[in-house]
């Protein structure tokens, strides 16, 4: 249930805001504060999903409240409430981190749209923070083969730039890992990296997922919703399996890259976005262009830098390092002692045909660890349980 705090010294305005929001959604949990100091204390004691804050108040004005809350809980979106003479100050608060501002008396549609969008953005920020923690723990580039060293060198050169990158390679080779490393080593690393699996989203929903939609744009659009491009503003958007994107969505992505603007589905209003695009595919996009399945102009916009991730069969010297890494990771996940692999077992695993690449190797290592009855996994155990 979204929790909204209203910081406003005028009781009449507070009542209006409470009435509007209560009628809009029975799920909103509303709290009130008569001045900035009380509002800050409430923020310290509880978690809120949104703050509506007046600009002119006794004891502490809205600008000071904004600065204080951003230090305490920077992830909370704040919408400033401005009187007629406060518009310049309201614009200034947005430079200091406010999400938006609304004027007094509050316009019904303007207020509700702003609240919906701000709450959507808060959900995306929280989810991205969760993903960042996951990324920090789980994403590592394992290997010292010439093929992997070449990719690491490329990432070091390309990451600090704004160049768009197209990552190619078979399924399971680690394209997602390369995208995350590019983001983490970029100047946008403090911003969001938003992932979109283009192959997993139905064609009729991909545009809404990428660009958002307005209420009523289609049957199930019961509220305004921000898309992935907006969520990635100031950061990176990773378009995985872009070869599966519909031609209609490709045209809109092309416009976003050309003009740094998007339009939500059902709206003709332009929204400026500052996003670095990293794309990945397991398809041959040049062949897809010949088959009229992919736009050539979009390809050239995306493929400023090309990074090809090799198959595991082409970097076999990395297999022992990968096995050691997976063995430690799996043991940690299962809360057990780390099992080792004999030299003969490692040599046998290096010889196998890894059609499923790193993903398949990880599954085999986990299977061997679970099914083996000894602390050291030997070649006999590999032959028995590897499924090769």
UniProtKB/TrEMBL annotation:
Response regulatory domain: residues covered: 3-119
Official protein name in the record: DNA-binding NtrC family response regulator
Matches recorded under PANTHER family: TRANSCRIPTIONAL REGULATORY PROTEIN (PTHR32071)
4-aspartylphosphate, modified sites: 54
Start and end residues of each Sigma-54 factor interaction domain: 141-370
Keyword Nucleotide-binding attributed: yes
Gene Ontology BP annotations: phosphorelay signal transduction system; regulation of DNA-templated transcription
InterPro entries: AAA+_ATPase, AAA_lid_NorR, CheY-like_superfamily, P-loop_NTPase, Sig_transdc_resp-reg_receiver, Sigma_54_int, Sigma_54_int_dom_ATP-bd_2
GO-annotated molecular function: ATP binding; DNA binding
Pfam families named in the record: AAA_lid_14 (PF25601), Response_reg (PF00072), Sigma54_activat (PF00158)
Organism of this sequence: Mesonia algae
Highest taxon listed in the record's lineage: Bacteria
Gene3D superfamilies assigned: 1.10.8.60, 3.40.50.2300, P-loop containing nucleotide triphosphate hydrolases (3.40.50.300)
Keywords attached to this entry: ATP-binding, DNA-binding, Nucleotide-binding, Phosphoprotein, Transcription, Transcription regulation, Two-component regulatory system
Keyword Transit peptide recorded: no
